[in-house]
Amino acid sequence: MATTTPTTPLLIRQLERLPANPTAAVRVLWLADDPNSSSEDLAAAVSTDPALTTRIMHMANSAYYGLSGKVLSSAFAITILGFSAVRTLAAAAAAGALGQERAVPDGFWAHAAATAAGSALVAARVGAPRNEAFSLGLLHDIGRALLHRVDPDLSASITATSGTCGRSLLDAERAAFGLDHVEAAVRVLSAWRFPPEFVEAISAHHGDVETVTSPLTRALVTGEALADHARGEDGRDAADHEAVAVDVGGLDPSEIEGFVAHVRREADVLAGSFFLS
Question: Using CA atoms, how far apart are residues 56 and 47, in angstroms rounded to an integer?
């Protein structure tokens, strides 16, 4: 597959340096990493970017949070969403994954919304913080958006052809870009000061499920299995997703149907917070 994509070292440097300008999104990333920051501090940074302000207000007022039309300030919106979700939206903005034509692969935000709903749903079961699990579900595939940003046509081609001839999406990405979307996400989110346990969960979510031990990783892996089951994604049999939910998430087989139905409903509600593609 011929491509003019940069060499791997250059590509990694480009990805890590994406938020090179002092944009509102980057200031939010730094403030969210500061334990002394308040919601007012974050609101002040957010308010300098009308697009990011609109997205945060829209999400806080969505039916998912049950406060439609009642969140009238960005400071209140940040209190409702929590620092983790605001940081996640800021990272998506810094990566160019919000509100732009061809900004993300097809189905990106629909899958993210379903995974966030699933991860939040099982968080208590596996001992993970619900807000962190929710944010992790939203951002777990940000590496796909990053690679898509580098070369949208190549990214679309990989998505369309992966799974053929026995080649997985990760294998196809490594062959084309020199790294896969998991490595891209880990490198960039580490450079952007995301918590180590958050980055670790993203690093492990496509690995062997038998090695999954941390609460956040268990929430993500289980949440994505429920999301894929609910949306009929990735070509795997529903039984495979159910096995992951049982083995990793500790769910009883009798609970699966109810959990999947809940994820469908929550994902549909949450979807209104994004320009889905």
Answer: 10
Distance CA 177, CA 184 (A): 10
Q: Pull the structure tokens for residue 137.
A: 């579900």
68-123: pLDDT as tens digits: 788 898 889 999 998 888 888 888 887 777 766 567 888 888 899 999 999 999 99
The conformation of residue 153, written as its DSSP 8-state character, comes to H
pTM attached to this predicted model: 0.84
Asked if 3 and 176 count as a contact pair (C-beta separation under 8 A), the reply is yes
Q: Which two tokens stand for residue 218?
A: 């268990």
The CATH superfamily holding the domain 1-9+101-277 is Hypothetical protein af1432 (1.10.3210.10)
**Domain limits, CATH 1.10.3210.10, in the chain:** 1-9+101-277
- 27 contact partners, CB below 8 Å, separation of at least 6: 45, 48
Nearest to 105 by CA among 143, 52, 56: 143
| Cβ 137 vs Cβ 109: under 8 Å | no
Residue 29, CA distances (Å) to 23, 63, 160, 221 in order: 10, 26, 33, 25
Question: What is the residue whose two structure tokens read 């945060």?
Answer: 56
DSSP character for 47? T
